[in-house]
């Protein structure tokens, strides 16, 4: 596809600056890329297809959007094409440096009473006692355990049930 060199250079500059390129799968010539003024999605897809064929980018596709990630060879190629010094690297390879987040004094004062003051390895805040009674209302009541019942063997088809033994002075159950 014939493309003006300034558009191709703009695509390559954005790819190198970000380290990743995103384009909507929309082949209409009048649907333009949101980050590149005057460049259509079709032109971005064709330029990235050329880089992908040479193994300079890796492609992923999800939900009508294509994502192209620069490989190490792609970084070297674009650095040479755009005539950039080796100190400049894509944003995807730069580490984000975050300083310590200061805690406002109002939050520090509010958090102080909830901090555990007992020395030791525990770092949990102490439990609050005001809600303890309300939680206990929903729990099971303590009941005495049920008395233990011995299981009795019941006779089946092949054996009759056992007969109780006769007490003293009573005739046997079968004689009578």
UniProtKB/TrEMBL annotation:
Region (Disordered): 99-176
Amino acid composition bias (Pro residues), ranges on this chain: 161-176
UniProt cross-references to Pfam families, sorted A to Z: S10_plectin
GO MF entry, a single one: structural constituent of ribosome
Gene Ontology, cellular component aspect: cytosolic small ribosomal subunit
InterPro entries: Plectin_eS10_N (IPR005326), Ribosomal_eS10 (IPR037447), WH-like_DNA-bd_sf (IPR036388)
Keywords: Ribonucleoprotein, Ribosomal protein
Protein biosynthesis in keyword set: no
Biased composition (Basic and acidic residues): 139-149
Bias (Low complexity): 106-115, 150-160
Plectin/eS10 N-terminal domain residues: 3-95
Gene3D superfamilies the record matches: Winged helix-like DNA-binding domain superfamily/Winged helix DNA-binding domain (1.10.10.10)
Entries under PANTHER family matching the protein: 40S RIBOSOMAL PROTEIN S10 (PTHR12146), PLECTIN_ES10 N-TERMINAL DOMAIN-CONTAINING PROTEIN (PTHR12146:SF25)
Family named by the database record: Belongs to the eukaryotic ribosomal protein eS10 family.
The protein's name in its UniProt record: Plectin-like
Native source species: Alligator mississippiensis (American alligator)
């Amino acid at each position: 596809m014939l493309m003006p060199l300034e558009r191709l250079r703009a695509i390559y500059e954005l790819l190198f600056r970000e380290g990743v390129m995103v384009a909507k799968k929309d082949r209409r010539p009048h649907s333009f890329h949101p980050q590149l003024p005057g460049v259509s999605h079709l032109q971005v897809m064709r330029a990235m297809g050329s880089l992908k064929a040479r193994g300079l980018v890796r492609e992923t596709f999800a939900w009508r959007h294509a994502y192209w990630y620069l490989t190490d060879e792609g970084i070297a190629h674009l650095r040479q094409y755009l005539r950039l010094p080796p100190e400049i690297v894509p944003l995807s390879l730069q580490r984000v440096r975050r300083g310590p987040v200061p805690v406002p004094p109002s939050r520090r004062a509010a958090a102080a009473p909830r901090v555990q003051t007992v020395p030791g390895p525990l770092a949990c805040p102490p439990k609050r006692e005001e809600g303890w009674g309300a939680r206990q209302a929903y729990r099971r009541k303590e009941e005495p355990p049920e008395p233990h019942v011995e299981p009795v063997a019941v006779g089946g088809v092949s054996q009759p049930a056992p007969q109780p033994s006769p007490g003293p002075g009573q005739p046997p159950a079968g004689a009578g």
